[in-house]
Amino acid sequence: MTDEEYIKIAIGEARKAASQDEVPVGAVIVFGDEIIARAHNEREARRDPTAHAEILAIREAARHLGSWRLASCTIYVTKEPCPMCAGAIFQARIDRLVYGAPDEKAGAVGTLYNIVNDERLNHQVEVVAGVCEKVCRELLQDFFKKRR
Questions:
Q1: How many other CB atoms are there within 10 angstroms of residue 40's CB atom?
Q2: In the annotation, is 54 catalytic?
Q3: Residues 13, 22, 42, 54: which is the catalytic one?
Q4: Quick one: average pLDDT of 15-38?
Q5: More confident residue, 86 or 145
Q6: What are the pLDDT digits (tens) for 85-99?
Q7: What single-letter DSSP state applies at residue 76?
């Protein structure tokens, strides 16, 4: 499958989040050509500030592989990760990150910070930005328009 096809699966997860009145962010983790984790934001449902799509997907992938090291994995996310999620991606040693829409308010993969490629750290992540950006951005914009 292509990056675009995997992001479309993450978009499906983001739509699930929106239908549950959660901020529409979805994540998918791939090892080889197998999807080993998928998740969407669940902060409201779990009453947990760490229940971002990326964190939940990383936990699921680690259980699947039986290791906290997710080397050789790619994470696909509909929105640029925040500092917490970028830190988790770094800590999990994920090799590659593909995301859709940038996050001007909290983006930590190049917009405000660049946690996953800080040369002072012992692991860097390959980043591909802007895959299906328009769809990902519109999902977020539509969700917040309805809330106002």
A1: 27
A2: yes
A3: 54
A4: 97
A5: 86
A6: 999 999 999 999 999
A7: E
Strands in 126-129's sheet, in edge-to-edge order, are 34-40, 26-31, 73-79, 96-101, 126-129
Confidence of residue 146 (pLDDT cuts 50, 70, 90): confident
Residues 6+ positions from 11 with CB-CB distance below 8 Å: 26, 78, 100, 132, 135, 136, 139
| E strand or H helix at 47 | none
| Residue 115 CA: distances (Å) to CA of 25, 52, 56, 64, 96 | 19, 17, 19, 25, 13
How confident is the prediction for the chain on average, in pLDDT? Answer: 96
Judge whether 70 and 58 are in contact, CB under 8 Å: yes
Compute φ and ψ for 96, nearest 5 degrees. Answer: -145, 140
Contact 38, 30 (CB under 8 A): no
Q: Quick one: 49 exposed, middle or buried, by C-beta within 10 A (0-12, 13-18, 19+)?
A: exposed
The neighbour count for residue 54, using CB atoms within 10 Å, is: 29
